[in-house]
Design a protein that fits this description.
It is a single chain. By secondary structure, the chain is of the alpha+beta class. It folds into two domains: 155 residues, endopeptidase fold (from Nostoc punctiforme) (Alpha-Beta Complex); 140 residues, Lysozyme, CATH 1.10.530. 39% of the residues lie in helices and 10% in strands. The chain has twelve helices and eight strands. The strands form two sheets. It has a six-stranded antiparallel sheet. Strand 5 and strand 6 form a beta hairpin. The chain is elongated and about 75 Å long. The relative contact order is 0.13.
Length: 334
Amino acid sequence: MKTNALGVAALAMGATAAVIVAALVQAAGATPAGQALGLSVSVPDQYKRLVEDAGTTCPEVTPNLLAALLQTESEFQNGRTSKAGAQGLAQFMPSTWEAEGIDGNRDGKRDVWDPEDAIPSAAKYLCKVAGDTKDVSGDKQGNMLAAYNAGPQAVVKWGGIPPYGETQDYVKSIKALASKPVAGGMATAAQIATVILTAEHEVGMPYSWGGGNANGASTGSCCSPNGSSGVNIVGFDCSGLVVYAYAQIGIKLPRTAAEQYSASEPIKREEIRPGDLVFYGSSPAGIHHVGIYVGGGYMIEAPRPGTDVRFSPITSQSDLYGFARPVPQTNKEI
């Protein structure tokens, strides 16, 4: 059973379809196609998680764009007050903060000087002004940024970015910062969406020991540790599915799960994003299984002989070892 409906496949496997679809929407749409999934803007460590979380508040805002805005506004200097009276990391005017500031950390206070309030408030306000200017022609992202700086009324009045030198320079600066390539050459959001959709299209394909390559499903080999043969089965084993999905964006990965872990960048559990790989085993050399993370605690995997490619919780096997992120540098002969 193949499916072209990600939500249907997710429901069939007991997953929360809305969560997985949302993860794909975030990967494919919330970030511009050329934007990498990662921060090219230098963000102080104490603010990274806040920026990454708040940067998914709405489709018009990305973590990197939010980081670029905060860098431009305050250079991440929390005690800064502008000559005009704008305050904190996100440089809110007191009147704007009074109307738009939120209690991001739910401690009962809305404090412009508290990064846990100011950063999510900046993202929320960006989303609001994006809505306020959605009917204005021209560069939607530029209009949103201009509205943050000069107010949405000015953008509406001028039918786009106002002819104010400060605002025009502000928009150019943020967009330039946000479009810088990420150190380490991480895959773009559109590429990650391609990886996930490629794997999703194979849901229902039989498991075949040794099956699958960069061109798709194939007959496998003999034999698995329990004696199962893939010689007469067209399909994928776990690492073959990963090889195929990542080949679609030009990243060549080694054939086995253990080799794929070694060729990727290890990440912490709290850093996992759609498209990252989930590994199982007792040690790097003992890794025996891999799946592709899709969000919401689920992955797409080719589990074992006698099963099909499917959605599964990442907790479905007891020996979860770790997570890693393939990067374009692995696109070389191995």
